Amino acid sequence: MKKVVLSGNRPTGRLHLGHLFGALDNWVKLQESYRCFFFAADWHALTTEYANPETIKKNTFEMFIDWFSAGIDPEKSVIFIQSEVKQHAELHILLSMITPLGWLERVPSYKEIQQELKDRDLNTYGFLGYPLLQTADILIYNADYVPVGVDQVPHIELAREIARRFNYLYGNVFKEPHALLTEVPKVPGTDGRKMSKSYGNAIYLTDSDEEIKKKILHMITDPNRKRRLDPGEPEVCPVFWLHKIFTDDEKRQDLASGCRTASIGCVDCKSVLINNVIRFIEPIRERRVEIEKHIDEIPMIIEEGNRKAREVAEKTMEVVRETVFGSAR
User: What is the 3-class SS of 22-54, one letter each residue?
Assistant: First the structure.
């Protein structure tokens, strides 16, 4: 039996380069060696978007198209919608009975996201319990590995603690999942901050050549390089950070040298990046065009994924129900 990998994305909008390098590129590789479950985390989206749920369904559909365009293959992976597998909610409820409140309050992202999204009221159990629902997502498939960046490791550690506590109280049911650390390159947005839809600084997988060109030409650079003849420092320039992803070593060294000696200008440097980004995204856009020719088939593909996920989740829940309630019957 192949080891099981579980991961998901919240359908909060179009996918961008940050999603591609932070998750999708890695998923495409993992599906060749593992039994993979990838899901649209629409319940998780509600933890911060509960006041605007009308966009979640549309975003979910568009996100699946982006996944398929990036190379996620429904023949190799189980692809499904979280809310279509009700067993996630049932396990979440049972786990909430045994999870100390302090375990949830100490998760670093609880306070960090509240600070980041100050314009929203996140004083809800749904937001506090986000990592617990995430634990249910993982344990219900008895996932061996969860691919995450370093910032998500505390969530996996929480899942391990909850699995241990459940097994201690009721019997050995769940595996303790492991974080599968991914090398996530720093993908800056056009303003130098982390690329994010909420910051309005993203380059999307569906952007046209003209949109990509416009966004990169407007990117901030080394603030000390105010004039063409001013030497710059590439390591403080968001444009150069993107070159680390899209430009080969030899050309990148030339650009760095030209920046430090002011032998090239920022527009020259950006022009190289524009061409490289467009060349990289072009195959993804071409696959999207082909996928959209068969768009009517996508709901059937997803429903088949939902069915497969339900089948596995229900088998887990049968064991969980018997373990928790069996002795009381």
Answer: HHHHHHHHHCCCCEEEEEECHHHHHHHHCCCHH
